[in-house]
Amino acid sequence: MKRSSTILSIFLIAILIYWSYYALMPQSYSKVDTDTRHFSTERALTHVKAISQKEHYVGSKAHKEVRDYIIDQFKSLGLTPSIQEGYTTGEWGNLSKAINILARIEGTEEGKALVLLTHYDSKSHSSFGASDAGSGVATIIEAIRAFLSTGEKPKNDIIILITDAEELGLNGAQLFVNNHPWAKDAGLVLNFEARGSGGPSYMLIETNGGNKELIKMFSDAAPEYPVANSLAYSIYKMLPNDTDLTVFREDGNIQGFNFAFIDDHFDYHTANDNYENLDRNTLEHQGTYIMPLLHYFGNANLSTLEDKDDYIYFNVPLFGLVFYPFSWIVPMLEIAILLFVLLIGYGIKKGKLSFSEIFKGFLPFIISLILCGVIGYFGWGIIKTIYPQYNDILHGFTYNGHSYIAAFVALCIGISFFVYYKFDKLKTVNLIVAPLFFWLIICGGIAFYLKGASFFIIPVFATLVAFYILINQEHPRMILLILLSIPTLWILSPFIQMFPVGLGLNMLVAVTLFTILIFGLMLPVFGFYKKKRRMAYLAFLFALGFFVKAHFQSDFNEQRPKPNSLLYIADNDEEKAQWATYDTHLDNWVDQYIENEKNVSESDAATFSSKYSTRFSFTTAAAYKNIAPPQIELSNDTIIGNERLLEICIKPQRDVNQLDVFNNDEAEILECQINGIPLRKEFLDSPRRRNRLITHYISNNDYTEITLKIPVDNNIEFTFFEASYDLLENSLFSIPKRPENSIPMPFVLNDAIVVKKTFKID
């Protein structure tokens, strides 16, 4: 290939890759002067700003202020809002009193209702909740305002549900689905969520049956920027990251769509989830979903959504959402395999292929896969060894995460070019066989074990066409080969970023392997490059540049604050106290209280639950302060046959936010209720609860009442950890203000005063 053709092809490929990302979401947002009948991101932002002024977790003063604001906004739209209040234990053994906000727009016909869903609580205790899920609240308020401005009367009722205590265990959704009379009217749910502060919003389906009708109707509604694929939902179903919509599906058999953005994942549940960091174009993307779907499903027949059949679906630029039945998976795979075999036979017959060169062509591909697989597998561990401060970013996605993704991609491209340079005497047409062979094996496994990813066969078909052209033409037109690479670049390239952004940089191995697999499908183009060694060096240079960029962004500052943690734990039984932290890399603020020695007992380490099972890393003895422990009263102790009925009431004697209750290993709990809410038997018997009976997120300093049955010959001992989130404000302490280059560590109990007290019943 001539030098000019090589440069042009690289330029075109770069444009196509850029387009695959650029086309995912809007690149500008609607202003305040937008027609009142349309969604305006700037108008929605006024609600985000109002909602995210303060941390508004359940039980906080600002929590009520946000609730009152939302109610006032509904009233200003001419709606009649109501609240639903009650205790639930959620999905994770977390008790809270949820207060849901509801409103309803009456439809003109009888039928199932459309539910617009999000939540208004922020994560305890330091998140401002601008994205998660102030953006969802703002999206719904602005969409309803725009919808009502049209004067349109929907056929279906529209239920607006802003749930509470989603962050604690989907408690508000559970309260609505299981206790509110409107739940039986719900036919479809549109849920607006966030797991970051930017990037495209992904559509994920929640259904107990097939997705055929949901996909067809979603396509008919014609959102402008659909970002969805059946692989993402297949992965989503494997993860413990449920949303409110999961409760609708599991408890009410009500189907729906999630719309959630996940980029800038480092902001998720942190103090950086604020108004300033919310990507305006991302909020616009949510608006481009809700408006057409609101108009469409507000008038669609929502009683015909259930279907046994599933569709494969994915999005590509220009074509939007592409879908086809699961029943096509195996035939498409069989056709691809048949074409592959026939083309090899055809190429051998024409003298364009030789078995010896085909077998030699497997070597560079396998070598590249192995080298890059090893680099990806160990890469994140090596990076954390060099930069141990990354261990304190529990999300697993660092502020410079995108630089690392780019660096590893460039490194793998460089390795591939260098390896293929060593095999440069082999004809390109013979080199293509190896990646096609591996891709067909992958698609075969997918067809039976991960069917949602079966659209990966589409780029394989395009490469088979390129394979046919190369068999028939010694020097094919490069532009044609680049056009045939479009399915590879547009369908597969976005996954290189999606995996580590959504699942953390420990997924770098997916980045490196995926890069090599895509490189293999690009061999009809890359195989003709005459200067592969130079391409390798250029790629290595880019990799070095991104690693250097990541290095200079590896420190912490006001824009990239370090998550840190500090707790004061007073043992009321032994009158001892300790400082504790989850930090593995101590900064100067934490170091004032924590000795850099791991004085952590097993019992201390396993004290509190967290999303990532994070344990204390350091503890240091502290001066004991006489902080009022909870008042514990055994109000009933009755023996009936072989069972013993116990009632225990725990009352705070200070302002508290959280109570964790643990039982001893030997205890056998037959039944248990917390504030009248029964705990599920499968939860009580689950080893995953690790003796944690319940966590009560307390509102208004409320009591906790435990009613349980145990065998008559069984002794039980409770350990109570009562926490208040006021360590930095409490007058008993003089903790200096956290530096501007740090934020409270998310996902763990933090900035808390904890009192430990045991209560034994013989």
Topology record:
Blueprint: H1 3-22, H2 41-51, H3 61-76, E1 82-88, E2 94-105, E3 113-119, H4 130-149, E4 158-163, H5 166-169, H6 171-179, E5 186-194, E6 198-206, H7 212-221, H8 230-238, H9 244-252, E7 255-263, H10 280-297, E8 311-316, E9 320-325, H11 329-350, H12 355-386, H13 401-422, H14 428-431, H15 433-449, H16 457-472, H17 478-484, H18 486-503, H19 508-521, H20 523-526, H21 532-552, E10 562-564, E11 567-571, E12 576-581, H22 588-591, H23 602-605, E13 618-622, E14 631-640, E15 643-651, E16 658-663, E17 671-674, E18 677-678, H24 681-684, E19 692-697, E20 704-711, E21 716-724, E22 742-744, E23 752-761
Parallel strand pairs: 2-19, 3-4, 3-5, 5-7, 10-22, 11-23
Antiparallel strand pairs: 1-2, 2-4, 6-7, 8-9, 11-12, 12-13, 14-15, 15-20, 16-19, 16-21, 17-18, 17-20, 21-23
Helix pairs in contact: 1-18, 2-4, 2-10, 4-10, 6-9, 7-10, 11-15, 11-16, 12-13, 12-19, 13-18, 13-19, 13-21, 15-16, 16-18, 18-19
